Model the fold of this input.
Amino acid sequence: MNYFRATFYDRYTRLTEEQIKAKLTPVPKAIAFSGTSEVLAGKTLKIILDDGPTLEYSFTKDSLTLKEDGQAAIEAPYTAKEHNGIILFTHMVPGTVRGYNVVIDSKTNLVTVFEVWFCGFEHDKREVWRHYMFGYVDTGETVPEKRHALTNRLEGLGTYWSNDNGEEMLYFFPSVVWSSYVELSHPRGGITITGPSDFIKINDKYYIFSRVDCEYSGTFVLEVIDLMEVKHIGVRLGFNLEDELDYQVYSGCGEVTGKVTNLEPLSDYGTELPEGVKPKADDPKGTRPSYRPRFLYPDLTAEQVEEIIKNNCKVFEGRSIMASMNTMEVTDYMVGKKFTLRFDDGPAWEYEIIDTSTLKWREEGEENWHEEIYQGFEPAKDIILFSHICTGTNPLRCLTHAIDFSKALVTCVDARLGNGRKAWEVGRRAIFGVLEMEGGPTPPAVERHGFTTELVGRAQANVYSDFMQSVHVYSSPESCSWTIMMPNNAGGVMWSSPCLYIKLREDAYLISWTEDTCNGNQGTFILNPQLWQDSGFFFGIGGQGDDLSVMLTTLGAYVRPLYGYNILKYFEKKRK
Done:
């Protein structure tokens, strides 16, 4: 059975090793969009690696010969870039699906080598794997004791880049093993993508960053970053959306957009991978932390979704991993109230709140009432967020309302199972309107809640429980990412989602995300930047194997602000 990878929502076909070998024949040379370096022409290098082969190179202007551990020499084209004495060169090995990316500090002769190869996962070989090795150039003199090394010095960093290949990028490093980025130059613009990454220190000025789009195109990127001048040189290897080889070197200049606070102990310098993400002795070469949701969650049909709805619907039963001691207390604010929620160019719903867990609702003009279980919070004064399933609707509907009883304004996140791409993923929209209630304030004629960019660039730590913490970065006007923290409080695995940001009041922002191409669930909560707390709900299909159910649960977290990133100006520039 064929399957696809999706990058919100590009679709990449799987490639076999035979197809990849054909695309790598004849041996390709990485293209460049501006000047390359001839600093290696006419030279020979013997690179000694602590964990790898001895590499003996001879260079001309355009090609090299290589002996790996004394084996027969091979010849291949190469491309090199140089920045302030840091040399990056890249080449493929003839007749194989592998190659080398080599970073040399010519002042110290220290070297980091990334061996790369198309390996993939299960039957899809388009993904590039890597194995990095530290060493030095053998000059015949004393062997240096120092090496390049892993680091957490980049953790939390945010940067903007304008590259000579036409790319404009935002990078975010809230993790020591993962990163996220927004392609400002891509037509889709504001989507945040995440991928497993490496962070290596050359010295206090220069660093190596690599990533692979493991759940998407499979493309590998390596960059040498100069944080003193905010410039970089890089190489990319992979296949694009049309399955054409994308092998290039590039350079760019940028700006530092900010830095999120590190949460590890002050004496932790990140020179070793933490337990849980450190490869085990019997792991295959090139193993790195990865998160592959398409293998974790079933791709359900519409008929299967209907069966789950019919037989296993759990409303406020059990608890999600984001519902804990830090979930806000249920409110009795609405008990006994009757009101109508009227939405612009949309529905009008009548409500009667029976107690703290039961309500009745109906569409205006409908004769019969529907009784539902609900829960509600008061995350800001006189603002109530509550949620309930609409039993019997097809596709199944979940309404989450944020009512400001002080101003008679309401926002509804109207969600349903099925988003037009997958029958089991949640689709949703935000609609705006007013509260009509006897004895309540007069609804405003024009004023409404509305979408906001005020949170763009914000970063915060969410503490759901003693065993569940994450760092959230609101990295574009339409998306966000989160980082699951590891036991030493270093940032670990990341994921990202489309996101809605809505301002209710200065003390209340509604945020709603959908975990597309992941578990398909939707989260909606209100952030109160005075209480430093998130309170809300999680809706979708959950469970494993045969134990799948529709779930509506609460969520809640205490929030720690972590500074953030000055990035809104880049989106405003793009939209002008």
Remarks:
- The first strand starts at residue 4 and ends at 7.
- The longest helix spans residues 302-311.
- Residues 1-7 have pLDDT under 50 and may be disordered.
